[in-house]
Amino acid sequence: MARMKFLCDAERCIDCNACVTACKNEHEVPWGLNRRRVVTLNDGEPGELSVSMACMHCTDAPCASVCPVNCFVQTADGIVLHNKDQCIGCGYCFYACPFGAPQFPSKSNFGSRGKMDKCTYCAGGPDGSNSPEQFAKYGRNRLAEGKLPICAEMCSTRSLLAGDGATIGAIYKERVLRRGYGSGAWGWSTAYRDSPTV
Amino acid sequence: MLTKHRPGSASRALPSLPAQDTPAALDRRGFLRNSGLAAGGLAAISGLGMATVRPVQAGEIVPGEPVETRKSVCTHCSVGCSVIARVQNGVWVGQDPAFDSPNNLGTHCAKGAAVRELTHGDRRLKYPMKLVNGSWQRLSWEKAIDEIGDKMLEIREKSGPDSVYWLGSAKFNNEAAYLFRKFAAMWGTNTCDHQARICHSTTVAGVANTFGYGAMTNSFNDLANAKAIMIMGGNPAEAHPVSLQHLLRSKELNQAELIVIDPRFTRTAAHATEYVRIRPGTDIPVIWSILWHVFENGWEDKEFIANRVYGMDQVRAEVAKWGPEESERVTGVPSAQLRRVAEIMSQNRPSSLVWCMGATQKTVGTANVRAYSIMQLALGNMGISGGGTNIFRGHCNVQGATDLGLDVTTLPAYLGLDEEAWRHFGRVWDVEYDWLVSRFASKKLMETKGIPSTRWFDAVLADKSQLDQPDNVRAMVAWGHAANSITREPVMRQGMSKLDLLLVVDPHPTTFAISGDRKDGTYLLPACTQFEQSGSVTGSNRSIQWREQVVKPIFESKQDAEILYLFARKFGFAEQLIKNIAVEDNVPVAEDILREINRGCFAIGYSGQSPERLKMHMKHQADFDPATLKATTGPCAGDYYGLPWPCWGTPELKHPGTAFLYNTNVPVKDGGSGFRARWGVEREGVSLLAADYPIDSEIKGGYPEFTMAVLKKLGWDGDLTATEMEIIRKIGGDNIDRVSWQTDLSGGIQRVAIQHGCAPFGNGRARVVAWNLVDPVPIHREPIQTPRRDLIAKYPALPDRRDFRLPHLGLSLQTVDKSKDFPLILTSGRLVEYEGGGDETRSNRWLAEIVQEAYAEINTEDARRLGIKDKSMIWVYGAESNSKATLRAHVSNRTGPGVVFIPFHFGGMTAGVDNRGKYPPGLDPIVVGHAVNQLTTYGYDAVTHMQETKVTLCRVEAA
Fold it and tell me: Do A156 and B845 touch (CB under 8 A)?
C-alpha cells in the first residue's frame, strides 16, 4: 500500500505560486482560504529560499490527536481527511499543526470560526465520492480518477512532488546526489518522522 | 524564520473580496445549485435585455454530463505552455496538466494555472458601452460600430487617416495581428503598433542589425544544454517561470553556473551561483568590462570571429577603454567579479545569454542588446545548442505580432515600408497598388514610419507644426493594450482628455477607460480572450502552436477578427480585407488567414507552417523529444516542435523548422544556415560574406541573398518548375532578375536554393559594427535622469533629434540636474502573479488574492536614513510632472542602496486618489494601486523610441 506524501525541494522552488492558484482553480476554494501557500525565508537576502506549504498529511497527525470531536480520518494511503459535518470550528487543530495548514472561513476570535478547511491531497471528502455536495465542501477527488494532487502536477519546476513516499523520496535523493547539494526536503522530517535521503 | 514575503500574501486573515455592485454574479457555485442559468449570475446584467447574452455556468462538473477536452495555449508569457481544458455544456469546468507538451511538460506558473477564470470573468466587459456625460451606458454592437465608424470617418475626412491611432495587441493570435496590420494599411496609416514597442523593439532592431533576424536564437528547452547561463536584465523566475525548469535542469545536470546580473536581487538571483549587482543603466560598461577580461586573456573564439564576424577590431578598440578602474568607477561592480564572470562564460562553453526588459527598456536599449550580441559572437556561442542570445519575449504572441508587422516601421515579415514592400503585399492581398496608395494621405506618408505607442499622446498634445503629418492624433484605439504600462502617465492623461474619440477594445475595460478627464466620446467594446477563439500563436522560441477554441465568446464579446471585419464593412473596405479569406458568421476564418500569411511571408520563413501541419503538431505533441524539440516518431517525425521560423518554402517542401538560428552544423534543409547576408557583400574593401558555410552547401563559402539574378548566375534557374517560373515572371514583369527569395510567391527560389544546400537569405557575416545606426559600435551613455552627474561630461546622452514624425529630446533634458531633489534611482519590473498592465490578472480572483497591494521596495540603509519602517506607507515622488504615488514600503536588501523598485502592473489610482468608481459598475479590477509609470520620466531609444522604464529618479518620504 502506498503512503502518500508531499515533498518540496527548496532548491527548485521559485515562488511562482502555481501550486496556490492551481489548487484554487481545481477546487474553487473561496477567497480568504488558502489550502496551499508559498513561504519565503531570508527574503531578499543571499540564501533566500522558498517553500510550498500545505497540510503534509502527517504520520500521527497532531491535528487528529487534538480534535475534540474526532473529525479526522487517515486513509489507508496515509491521507488525512476531515469531516466538515462533524467539525465545530474550535481551531485546536490550527494550534497543533506545525505547518499552519488548517484554514477557517470566519475571522472571529470568539465563538466558532466556521468549518475548518484544508488540503485534501486532491482526494475529495471522507466519503470518497465525487458528488457535487462533496465537491462544494472538499473539492474534486482527483485521486479517484488516478491523478495526483494538482499542485504537484502543475509545479513549474517540479519542486513540489506528490506520490508514494518511497518513490518521491528516491527522486529527491537522486537529485541531491546528482547536483551534489540539497537544502533539505522542507517539513518532511517534521511530518513523517524520517528523512527522505536515508 | 518563516516569513511571508509580501503583505497579504498567503495570509490567514485576508481582507474580504472587494465588494462589487452585484455580488451574486461572483458566486459560480451558486449557479450550480440553481442549476445555472436563470437566477443569480444574470443579476449582473439584469434589465438589459438578455437575448444575446450567453450566461456562464458553474465551475464544477455536473454528474452524468459528458466532458470534452480542448487544447489551447496560455495567454500570458511567451513560453507557450499548453493548457488542457475540460469543457462541459460549453463551460470550461477544469484544467488538467498538459503533460504531452514539450514546452511545459504539464507545468504552469500562477498565471497559467489560473487561466480558466478568464472565460468566466465576472469583471469582464460584457457588452458595448459608451461614456455619456460621465456615466456609462450600454449600447448594441450595431449602434456602436455605426457611431464610432461615423466619428472616425469624419476625422479621416478632416484630418487624414493618420489622425486615428490603431494600437493593437501582443495578445492577438497571429491571424488577428496580421489582419490588424492589413486593416490599418487599408485604413491608410502606418500608425499601428503593439506591446513590442515597449517590450523588445530594441532587441528586434539591435539583434537584426547584428545577425539578420531579431529573435531568440535557441529555445527555452535548449537552455538545459548550456554549460553556463548568464541572465542580464531579466527575472525569468517571475516573468517566465516555466522556463526555469529548463534552466535548473542545466544547473543540476551539467553543474552549469548560473550568473544573474541585475540591480535587484531577484527571485531568479536567489538561484544563481553568481549574483552581480550593478548600478542601473550601466549594461554596456558591464559587458565591455567582461569582454575586456576575455580579450585580455585571449579567451575569445578566434576562429569563429575570423570566419563569421565583421568588424571585431573596432569593438576591441572600444572595449580597451573599459579596464578594471573605469569599469568599477562607472558600474560599481568589483572588477574581480567581472573577471570571474568572463572566465565562467569562456571556460564553460557553450554558454548562453538571456535578457529581457532590463536590457531593452532603456534610452540605449538598441545599443545594449548589440553589446550583448557582440559578447556572444566574441565567445563563439552563436549557432550552437546550449549557446545563443536567448531573448525571452514578454507576451504570449508578442513574437508573432512583431513578425506579422503590427508595427509602425514595417509591413509583415520585416519587409519595411518602401514601394517594393507595398507592391509585394498588394499582390499577396490581391489588391491594386494604386488603390493602396489612394488610401493614404500621401505616398510619402505611406512610406514613412508611424508614431510609436510610447509617444501617441505627444502626437495628440504637440503643436501641429511639430508633427510630420497633416494633423494631430484625434482618435485613439486601444485594442488589447494597457495604458499604465506606458511611461509618463501624467502627460498621457492630458492626451486622453484632449482626444475626440477613445475606443477601447478589450476583454476588460483597462486603465484606458478610466484615465483622463473624459465625460463623453469613450467607447468600450468587449473582445473575447484567445480561449474563446482559435488561431496560431508564436512563442519566444519562434515555434508556432495552434489554439483550439475552448468555449464560445462569453457574454456579448466578439473575436478580434470579427470586430475588424465589422469595422472594415463600415469603412467600405471589407471586400479588399477578406479577399481570398472565407467569412463564417462575420468571423474571417483563421485557417484562411494563416494560409495567406504562408503565401506572403516567405521573408521570415512563415511559409511552411500551414494550419494542417500546426494542428498535426498539437495533436502529436507526445512524439516530440523535450530535450531537442524534434519529433522522433509519428506523422511529424523529423519536424521541430511548432516549426520554428524560418520554416522555408511552401508547406509541401516539409521543412522541419529552425531549432537554432545561424547553425552551420546542419544542412539548410534540416534547419541550418549562416548569418543573414543583409548588408551587401563588402564594406570598405572588407568582405561581408562568411568564410565558412552550412554543411552540404554546394557553395563553399559566403554568398549573397538569393534572387533570380543569383540563380541565373549559378545556372540553377533551370531547376525552377514551369509553374514557379510563371509566377516569378508575373511578379517581375520586365525585370525578373529582381524577384527575390522574399518576394517570390511561388517559393521556387527558396526551394532551389535549399536543394543546393544554400540558405535563401545568403551566408553573411554577423556585423558588430552597425554603420547605419547612431553609435555604430555601442558606447556607454548615462541615462537621462542619473544621480551620477560626474559622468555626464564623458558619457552624455544623444543630442536632441527628430524621428517617427516627432521631436525626440535627449541631451537637453539630461543637462538639467534633478538629482538633488530626487536622489534615488527608480526602477521597475514584473511580478509572477500579474502581467502587463494587469487589467486582466488583477481582475482574476485567484491571482489577485496573492498580491493585494501595490508596493515599493526600498533598501534598508535608505529606509533607516529616511525613517521608513517596513510595511509602512510612503510617498514616492517622480522627477517630472509633479507626480507622486502612495505605496506600501517593503524594506529589504533586495535592491541596493540608492535604488527603489516598484512593480509595474498596478493601476487605478492617481496621486493617492482611488479611481475605482470611474470603471463601469462591477468591472473594476479586484486590486488597484499606483502605476509606477505615473512616476517614470521622458527618455526614448534612438532607434525604436522604446521608453525608459528602468532608470529614472525619485524621492521617497514617509506618508
Answer: no
**Shortest Cα–Cα distance, B402 to chain A (Å):** 27
User: pLDDT tens digit string along B536-557?
Assistant: 999 999 999 999 999 999 999 9
Residue scoring higher pLDDT (B151 or A130): B151
Name beta bridge partners: B526.
Answer: B506
- Nearest partner of B104 among B642, B554, B482, judged by Cα: B642
Strand order in the sheet with B135-138: B135-138, B129-132, B522-526, B501-506, B475-479, B164-167, B192-193
Q: Could you give the 3-state DSSP secondary structure of residue B96? A: strand
Joined together, the cell numbers standing for residue B211 give 545577425
Cell of A54: 500545505
Q: Which residues of chain B neighbour A18 with C-beta distances below 8 Å? A: 107-110, 112-113, 241
Which of B559, B577, B561 is closest to B569 using CA atoms?
B577
Q: Measured between alpha carbons, how far is B421 from B584 in angstroms, rounded to an integer?
A: 30
C-alpha distance across the termini of chain B, in Å: 29
3-state secondary structure of B620: coil
**CA-based max dimension of chain B:** 80
C-alpha span between A183 and A13 (Å, rounded)? 11
B590-600 helix and B419-429 helix, angle to the nearest 10 degrees: 140
Average pLDDT over residues B53-74: 71
The answer to whether the Cα torsion of B945, B947, B951, B953 is positive or negative is positive
B351, burial (CB in 10 Å: exposed 0-12, middle 13-18, buried 19+): buried
Distances (CA, A) of B306 to B179, B290, B687, B688, B695: 44, 21, 11, 11, 18
Tell me the residue type at B563. Answer: I
Separation in Å, CA of A141 to nearest CA in chain B: 12
CA distance B246 to chain A (A): 8
The answer to whether A116 and A89 have CB atoms below 8 angstroms apart is yes
Percent of chain A whose predicted confidence (pLDDT) is above 90: 78
Does the CB of A173 have a partner CB in chain B at under 8 Å? Answer: no
Cell triple for residue A70?
474526532
* Beta-carbon-side half-sphere exposure of residue B307 (alpha carbons within 13 Å): 16
The predicted model scores a pTM of: 0.94
The predicted pLDDT at position B843 comes to 97
> Residue A28 CB: number of other CB atoms within 10 A?
19
Q: Do residues A96 and A61 lie in contact, with contact meaning Cβ atoms separated by under 8 Å?
A: no
Q: Is B110 on the interface with A (CB under 8 A)?
A: yes
Give chain A's length: 198
* Helix/strand/coil for A13: coil
CA A142 to each of CA A56, B29, B586, B688, B948: distance values in angstroms, whole numbers, following the listed order: 17, 19, 41, 61, 48
- What the block records as the C-alpha cell of A32 is 480568504
A38 in contact with chain B, both atoms CB, cutoff 8 A: yes
Instruction: Check residue B723 and give its pLDDT.
Output: 97
d(CA B448, CA A188): 64
Q: Could you tell me which residue, A182 or B599, shows the higher pLDDT? A: B599
**Helical H segments across B379-488, by residue range:** 398-403, 419-429, 433-439, 443-446, 456-461
What totals of helices (H) and strands (E) does chain B contain, helices first? 29, 34
- Tell me what the pLDDT averaged over chain B comes to: 93
Q: Is B538 helix (H, G, I), strand (E, B) or coil?
A: strand
Separation in Å, CA B866 to CA B869, B870, B891, B899, B959: 9, 12, 11, 13, 11
**ipTM summary value:** 0.96
Query: Is A14 in contact with B107 (Cβ distance < 8 A)?
Result: no
CB spacing of B833 vs A43 below 8 angstroms: no
DSSP string, B257-274: EEEEE-SB--TTGGG-SE
